[in-house]
Amino acid sequence: MTQPTPVRGEHLPVALSLGASGLPAMPLRAGKVPFGNCPSCANNACGGRPNMKIPGPCTCLAPCHGWAAATTDPGILTSRVWGRAWRQSAAVAYHPGGAGLTVVDLDNEDAIAWADANLPATRTVRTTRGEHWIYRGAMQSANGVRPGVDVKSLMSYARWLGPGTGPLTTLPDAVRALVAREPAPVRPTPVTVPAPTGGGRCPHRSPAFLERGIAMAEQRISEASSGVHATVFGAFLAVLSTHGRCGCLTSAHTARLFAAAQAKGESPRHCTDAWTNALTRLGM
């Protein structure tokens, strides 16, 4: 049986227990989402992990950068800056890939029935709407690999809902194949990016800064498990608010964003509408 979800005051002890067992833990706020980056790390300006094009822990030691903030270090988990997050937290999450695990998130009874017929039995945790099947072994994460099925491992997080039941089974090739499957080709609709309005040299003409921004927008879209329309609009808005007026963006960048959105099921028309609405919101 799944353990009862802890009340807010119990989140830190749960996280410390997870860390002691080797599971990197982190707080979640309402809506099962990570805490936002601190002001020093907004838009990943701190650079995240050195020499890597992905978010990661930095010297601020705050619960920043989503999944990458998860830690087993009790000194960080009990620090003052993390204490503020724990007091506001609504749940505890962990980074499965950081512990060498993969979670197959089955979101409904149909998905569970599919897993029963196609995957080996393993440790199971009951969730609000379905089950988490946990395997020993890490792999690339991906959402929507099948109707109602997400794979959470590296560069992802899963909500902690208790230890579950049953022994851990080695990650099967059938799960790896879900993510390795070649995606259907998408044909993004080209978009014209407005020219710079300031007339001066672009302040963001740094390949690394721009690449991080585009990569984070792609990741935000690809990890959306619900509210895809709103997530796509928010990602477009974030990119345009930083780079839309200064001339950084190229057709290749917008094509990447449209491809990420269409891979989540958005139509070319929805992508165009979201882009246009973001431009309008920003007065561009």
Explained architecture:
The chain has helices spanning about 10-20, 75, 80-90, 110-120, 175-180, 205-220, 230-245, 250-265, 270-280; strands at about 25-30, 35, 90-95, 100-105, 125, 130-135, 140-145, 150, 160, 170. With about 280 residues, the protein is α+β, with helices and mostly antiparallel strands. Strands 4, 5, 6, 7, 8 and 10 form a 6-stranded mixed sheet that branches. It has a 4-stranded antiparallel sheet with strand order 2-1-3-9. Helix 6 packs antiparallel against helix 7 (about 230-245) and helix 7 (about 230-245) crosses helix 9 (about 270-280). It starts with 10 loop residues before the first helix and ends with a helix. The model is unreliable at about 1-5, about 50-55 and about 180-200 (pLDDT under 50).
